[in-house]
Automatic annotation (TrEMBL):
Catalyzes the decarboxylation of four acetate groups of uroporphyrinogen-III to yield coproporphyrinogen-III. It is found in: Cytoplasm. This is Uroporphyrinogen decarboxylase. Belongs to the uroporphyrinogen decarboxylase family.
């Protein structure tokens, strides 16, 4: 494989020295970019983009071509590919988000679920990873990802998005045996899926625990973090002669940073509700931190964006172990020029913290 020309993202995740704080954006390939909207129109729909390796590569590269400051690429895919490969029948309703043709509601439903083979059942994702990696040609590292077992379970039990997770939480408390079986199957599936991405060329992986923060403290430990810990313990951690860092991101997980830091990952993603300096103090040297600007700051003018970037950098302070990111995904209405101002500010303002 081609040597990396820019490895500061990987170095920061491993708390090694860097010249400036590396930066990327969750959902950096997406609807805020006109070139993405053109590609999606050409493909026909969202799933056609995801399931065609050439289209997935094209949209993965678009933000890198627009913003030379980006220090990583992230695979263009969806977190719900695993439930789809389990036979749940993923589709997207306009204005409604993801939906499933089948829902999981009983122990028998869960027992019937297969564990997908990443190469046979999700081969289009593996092909996309290898295609993107070739196209990058060492430009920046490629991030692979998956949803967490708890987050995937919520979609499978609810049949789509939910505001209150009524069915999922009812199963958790009424039938914990069934929920644990579902989460265990998902943990096995995610482990195999991420290892497949690593073997195909992903150089770091992130687990998105989007809905873990909706659990109580006790339920988070038992039904979310325990399964992410299991995944981390089963991942390939070195490939192609270098370490493969693992990032855990629980939206709303700021109360449990110490526990997450002990789960075995290399880095924690923070949402915007945490102060990154306080988070650094709490986790010490155990892990790197990724984050954590409020995505809505990108609606403000470039001067205000630059000011907020400076505040977060100052809060983290000197030294490595910080990957700058938004506290969640960039939203579709953001002006691409504002995203560019954000990325430039990170590199320009962070050099002083790495002397």
């Amino acid at each position: 494989m081609t040597a990396l020309k820019n490895d500061r993202f990987l170095r920061a995740l491993l708390k090694q020295p860097v010249d400036v704080t590396p930066v990327w954006m969750m959902r950096q390939a997406g609807r805020y970019l006109p070139e993405y909207r053109a590609s999606r129109a050409h493909a026909g729909d969202f799933m056609s983009l995801c399931m065609n390796p050439q289209f997935a590569c094209e949209v993965t590269m678009q933000p890198l071509d627009r913003y030379p400051q980006l220090d990583a690429a992230i695979l263009f895919s969806d977190i719900l590919t695993i439930p789809d490969a389990m036979g749940q029948g993923l589709y997207f309703e306009t204005g409604e988000g993801p939906r499933f043709k089948k829902v999981v509601s009983t122990l028998a439903d869960i027992e019937a679920l297969p564990i997908p083979d990443p190469h046979k059942d999700l081969g289009y994702v593996m092909d996309a990873v290898s295609t993107i990696r070739r196209e990058l040609n060492g430009r920046v590292p490629l991030i692979g990802f998956s949803g967490s077992p708890w987050t995937l379970a919520t979609y499978m039990v609810e049949g789509g998005s939910s505001k209150d997770f009524r069915k999922t939480k009812a199963m958790l408390y009424d039938n914990p045996q069934a929920m644990h079986l579902l989460l265990d199957k998902l943990a096995q599936s995610v482990t195999a899926y991420l290892n497949g991405q690593i073997m195909a060329g992903a150089q770091a992986v992130q687990i998105f625990d989007t809905w873990g923060g909706n659990l109580s403290a006790a339920a988070y430990q038992e039904f979310s973090l325990a399964y992410m810990r299991k995944i981390v313990s089963g991942l390939i951690r070195e490939h192609e002669g270098r370490k493969v860092p693992v990032i855990l991101f629980t939206k709303g997980g700021g109360l449990w940073l110490e526990s997450i830091a002990d789960a075995g990952a290399d880095a924690l993603g923070l949402d915007w509700t945490c102060d990154i300096g306080e988070a650094r103090h709490r986790v010490g040297n155990r892990v790197a931190l990724q984050g954590n600007m409020d995505p809505t700051v990108l609606y403000a003018n470039p001067e205000a964006i630059r000011s907020e970037v400076g505040r977060i950098l100052a809060s983290y302070g000197k030294g490595t172990g910080h990957v700058f990111n938004l506290g969640h995904g960039i939203t579709p209405e953001v002006n691409p020029e504002h995203a560019g101002a954000f990325l430039r500010a990170v590199h320009e303002l962070s050099a002083q913290y790495h002397e």
